[in-house]
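Lecture 7 notes: from sequence to structure.

We start with a single chain of 631 residues. Read the sequence below before looking at the structure.
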Amino acid sequence: MKAPVIHVVWVWLTINTVVTVNAAKSIDPEWDKPPRLFVASYDIDSRDCREYGRDDCVFDDGSREWDEAIHTYSETLHWRDGADSDGTSREEYVYNTESGTTRFLCKRTMQWPATEWPRLSWDGTQVATDDCSAQTGPIMPPSIAMEYCDVTDRTNESWFFRVPTDSCYHAGYSWLKYKRRASTEMKLLPGGKSVPGRKSLFRILCTATAILDKRALPDFHSAASCAIPSTNVILGEFGRLDSWNCGYKALPDGAPPVNVTPYVAGTNFYWFDPRPPEKLRMELNSVTFEDCYSIRRDTNGTAYPAPHWTTNASYPILYTSGTHLRARVNFRSVCDPVVMQIDLRGMASSSHFFWVTNNVGPGDATINATAWVALTTNRVDFLNPLYVHWMYRVPGKTEYIMAGTSANQVYVSWHAPQTGSLFHTVADVACRNAKGLTTESEIVAGIWSDFTDRSVLKWDGSGPMLYWGDFMWTNRDSNIGFSVADLLKYSDARCGAWARFFRDTIKLHGITSAAWKQIVIAPLPGLSTHTIWVKNWDMSPIFATPPSLPIDLSGIAGQGTSNPLASAFPDHAVVTYGTTIYDPSYGHTHQSLLDWQSASLDAISYTYGNSILWVLPPFSNPSVEYGLVEP
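Now the structure, written as tokens:
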């Protein structure tokens, strides 16, 4: 008699792993740990197979024989990353005939000590009982598949045929009931350092394949299958894959693992193939502003270098109103050897907004970015500082991640500068005091307001700068103190430097109607040298017998001092704007030369041989006039 045809499944746990990932190691917390994609758990909750077959044979002489076979098989596996794991299997085969019953029963219990994926343990043990007790002992590591399975299957078969050699008609039937439930949980450990607020972009490429054969077992490569469209796959917390099979997510460095298990709605049997994660973190290296004016150092007149911002330095810049802020932004790209398209966004404290899309890869990346909105036309501004928070994301797929923040002093002139004297403090006094102003007269008045209290500070808050202080008095016989550069370098200078300084703050805004002018004594025939005597002097000695020079008293307060150390000069420097005379050295304004002479001088003297001719107040007519003029 022939045994019935039964499709017995004898293979258990013949699964091959298909992904290579970086296992987490014990790393110093100060190190950047690598990301780790791993199997967090693999469960075969059940694989149950029950088969039955019976065959009846009727011989030609009318005699009969029968036999039946029953085969059952079940297994479970519960594997956990970093934890002890276990599994079971039970298999029974029963063969019944008229002559009796043959039975085979085997039960197995498996255990493996804790390991981390993908380093599976070779130290597992198996306890086998009943008819397979000889199999007790060491076992190989469990085989872990990347799959989701929740299938049931049933088949029925019957037959009737004659075998001539047996002289027998066979009639019989068989059925099979099959059920299998298995699932793999994938997780991603972001790695990196636990730096507050620091995040990285991650990209995972993953494919998923539907298994069409319900009774297929890993590794599935030879099973009937069809590809699943990537947009049907949800990659755990990464969300739906794009058309390139990629999922993206911004994750904090040092964060706990996140779920990245692929899920396909409406498909009950599929396997998946995730690739190792690609990590991108961009760190701001430097910012160079373009289409701007270079500002010069007060100390030596050299221009501040580019880049204008680095992690170790920040330098001021000057723009003209109505123009766009433009920046060349350099990043250190910390990533795997991969290129990603990113959106770069710069959110500025002044409400200016940069946004550009660019590709970045390993190493340094430089991206050109322009503010969407121009600086307000005809409006002076001073951004102290301009903070720009530089962020990046994968367009439309992740949140923005902070790459770093730059901070620069940004001065905004009314119109294009008409002076080359773009010293730091010139720009600071010009813009700080005129911030928000929109007309020429307002701007001049705003700048002048900083001179009226005779306490003009430098850009860094140091000062006030002096008019004829100790340094200038010590160097009175030198050529020091006549230029803006000298005033800013030594914080002490003569009237010529102070007047040029005030004029240049006005010209920085493109205002050309202010002029530096030299006030000199109007010449008289036959009289040679002459002197103006700025208040206050005791003039009584000139009337004594014999006469002598006036005695210097506490004078008119000058810049940074209540009593400038020099008060007698051959000339004086002022600035004219409109009909007003501005005297920056003393912080006063005047409406005419006679007004200036009356308010400022105690006397004017001419030398004639060995004699001195004195002109004393009250002055009815100006004894002074303009000499040199510098527009």
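Residues 464-631 form one domain. Keep this in mind for problem set 3.
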